[in-house]
Amino acid sequence: MTDWPSISQFEDAALLSKDHTILERSYMEFRPFGADEHGVKIRDVSGVVLRGNVDYLQECVTRNKGAEAAELAVQELCRLLNERLQDPVYHVTPTFLRNVWHSYSVEFLAYLREFCVILSGDPDFSFNAGREKHITPLIQTLGRPFTLPAGQSWGKRRRRRPGRFPELAVSLLVVGVSEGGFEPPRPVKVTRPST
Question: Is the pTM of the predicted complex or chain greater than 0.85?
Answer without folding.
Answer: no
